[in-house]
Amino acid sequence: MKILFIGDIVGEPGRRAVKILLPKLRERHALDFVIANGENSAGGSGITPKIAEELFSSGVDVITTGDHLWDQKEVAELLANEKRFLRPLNYPADVPGRGGGIFGIPNSKLKIAVLNAQGRTFMPPLENPFLLAPDEVKRLRQQTKIIFVDFHAEATSEKIAFARMLDGQVSAVVGTHTHVQTADEQIFPGGTAYLSDAGFTGPHESVLGREIEPVLKKFLTGMPQRFEVAKNRVLLQGAVLEIEDASGNAIKIQRVSELLTTQAS
Ligand SMILES: [Fe+2]
Ligand SMILES: [Fe+2]
Question: Which ligand is nearest to the CA of 40?
Fold first, then answer.
């Protein structure tokens, strides 16, 4: 089966890229399932039920998140009611929402598990994902061997170590959060595909999706600035994964960085 994972969708330009480019990618790669990180999809900060609905109707099957989860208060509704919406697994147990889920593949008897976890190095403090993820993977593997993991983290060492820990137990670990796509895609000996960071979907004539000037001014002066979402050179970034259905092992991982050339209709 073939899966597309879309790196952090940033604001309206990112959502437009998904809406326009996803149908083309779906056809070109014969995709069976699409997962997207939506933590920056509402004006660059967080996500709302309306925006989640927009992403689902653009063809996204499951939305993952990260440290920007709480930026919009309406997220509470998604955490409470939306099964296709995941938050990092490693919050304390009584926090609403969930980190892992099992989903049916459209037009197929197969199931896919999606797991979202967050790193702790240079990140807000959460429970230890290295201690929590193995049990969650065990739970998910009772229902399917096809397991995709979005590990939302800053440090490449933490990402690689986390993925190495899960090698042979999940189909893929793809990192998010840095917004910079890495060129280290590979398949580990146990059959787990890996990429340190998927990149981001949105305007790349920017600093990680935001207008350049205010970010530069903050670095120059240390004064707080309003970081507006930038506009130009919009890319959809992520990775296409080919998974062997029976074993759940990855066969192929290919980076995606697709330029949006058409305007919104
Ligand atoms: Fe992000
Ligand atoms: Fe993040």
Answer: 1
For the chain, what is the radius of gyration of the CA atoms? 17
Note the pLDDT tens digit of each residue in 88-101.
999 999 999 999 99
pTM passes above 0.90: yes
Q: Between β-strands 62-64 and 33-37, what pairing exists: parallel, antiparallel or unpaired? A: parallel
Catalytic residues: 68
Nearest in space to 200 (alpha carbons), one of 175, 228, 164: 175
Residue 76 CA to ligand 2 centre (angstroms): 18
- Asked if 83 and 58 count as a contact pair (C-beta separation under 8 A), the reply is no
Can you tell me the distance from the alpha carbon of 176 to that of 151, in angstroms, rounded to the nearest whole number? Answer: 6
Burial annotation 216-243 (CB, 10 A radius, 16+ → b, else e):
eeeeeeeeeeebebbeeebbbbbbbbbb
Q: In this structure, what token pair is assigned to residue 163?
A: 């993925």
When pLDDT is cut at 50, 70 and 90, the band that residue 263 belongs to is: low
